[in-house]
Design brief:
With 301 residues, this protein is α+β, with helices and mostly antiparallel strands. The chain has 3 domains: 91 residues, Rossmann fold, CATH 3.40.50; 124 residues, D-amino Acid Aminotransferase, Chain A, domain 1 (2-Layer Sandwich); 63 residues, ATP-grasp fold, A domain (Dna Ligase, domain 1), CATH 3.30.1490. It is 32% helix and 27% strand. It is built from 9 helices and 16 strands. The strands form 4 sheets. The protein has a 5-stranded antiparallel sheet, with helices on both faces. A 4-stranded parallel sheet has the order 2-1-6-7, sandwiched between helices. Strands 8-11-9-10 form a 4-stranded antiparallel sheet, covered by helices on one side. The longest helix is centred in the last third of the chain and has 14 residues. The protein starts with a strand and ends in a 12-residue tail after the last helix.
Length: 301
């Protein structure tokens, strides 16, 4: 097969691993900087042009779209879809998962466990919003944040009110969620490919840090999932329409709850912690599906 990896840089770990996994299996793999692509949007012959030359026909693409470049990145993915190229994740599925509010609404519609979550626009509704999630301590998240940036734990009523007023003062959209104290600063990253979890790791936040992101000093190790956790992760990915996803879960007193679904999950941490060839699993998924399944979307919203 001829595969394109849409990535800002060929030197990124995940990009390198995907390229190596494809080459090991005898495929022709190209790394394409999607921000250098431009498009000829016509009905009879849509094209993606890269560095001044039309890209030849690819059998499949693997989008690695950065959160801050979602709008342009998904436009490039859509253009490949118009050209009949199979994509590991569709443009629409990527857009859904990147909209944190829409993501949570879709998960809730499917009956998937979530932390109690509130959302409001007016600063006048802050008091009611705090009550909805059961009062402090509570977690405040900026909708556009990634890798733990824009996530604040407010341990008192006044702190919660002050933080929310500050965010709304700069017109930032925020979510307010219950704090799952029993998780103890630990979450589980489930890596879903197709219809199953191919690897899972426990991430533990650094001392004094409630966020477990590895970028923020957290540690990771392999973990055995319960059947309910495995099912929750797969259902969450399907709710977004994603074929490749990182689903982050907390263990709460009322079962597993999903806190995020990532359409471009990193490979470095999960492969190091689990010793699983996750990149190879993604290439295998392309091999099995690129010639058989077109870009049908698995979600209606």
């Amino acid at each position: 097969m001829k595969i394109a990896i849409l990535s800002r840089s060929a030197t990124l770990y995940s990009t390198q691993r995907l390229q190596a996994a494809g080459v090991e299996r005898g495929h022709e793999v190209h790394v394409i900087d999607y921000l250098r692509c431009y498009m000829n949007i016509t009905s009879h012959k849509p094209l993606v042009i890269y560095q001044g030359k039309p890209l030849e026909k690819f059998d499949a693409i693997v989008p690695r779209i950065g959160a801050s470049k979602t709008f342009y990145g998904t436009a490039v993915v859509r253009q490949f879809e118009m050209m009949g190229v199979f994509t590991a994740n569709s443009s629409q599925a990527i857009s859904r998962s990147r909209d944190k509010l829409r993501c949570l609404q879709l998960l809730a519609k499917k009956g998937i466990g979530l932390p109690v979550t509130g959302f409001a626009h007016s600063p006048k509704d802050i008091e009611s919003l705090i009550d909805i999630v059961g009062g402090p301590p509570l977690v405040i998240k900026v909708l556009e944040g990634t890798q733990g940036i824009g996530v604040v734990l407010a341990e008192s009523h006044q702190a919660a009110k002050s933080v929310m007023e500050a965010f709304r003062g700069i017109d930032a959209n925020i979510l307010v969620q219950e704090f799952i104290k029993e998780a103890g600063g630990m979450d589980i990253r489930c890596f879903v490919v197709g219809d199953k979890v191919v690897a899972a790791m426990k991430r533990q936040g650094a001392a004094g840090e409630f966020r477990s992101n590895l970028h923020r000093g957290g540690t990771s190790e392999k973990i055995k999932l319960t059947p309910e956790e495995r099912s929750t992760a797969v259902r969450a990915a399907k709710a977004m329409g994603l074929n490749v996803a990182g689903v982050d879960i907390l263990r709460s007193n009322h079962g597993p709850v999903v806190i995020e679904v990532n359409s471009s999950p990193g490979l470095k941490g999960i492969e190091a912690a689990t010793q699983q060839d996750v990149a190879g699993k993604i290439i295998e998924f392309l091999e099995k599906n690129a010639g058989l399944v077109k870009n049908g979307d698995r979600c209606q919203y």
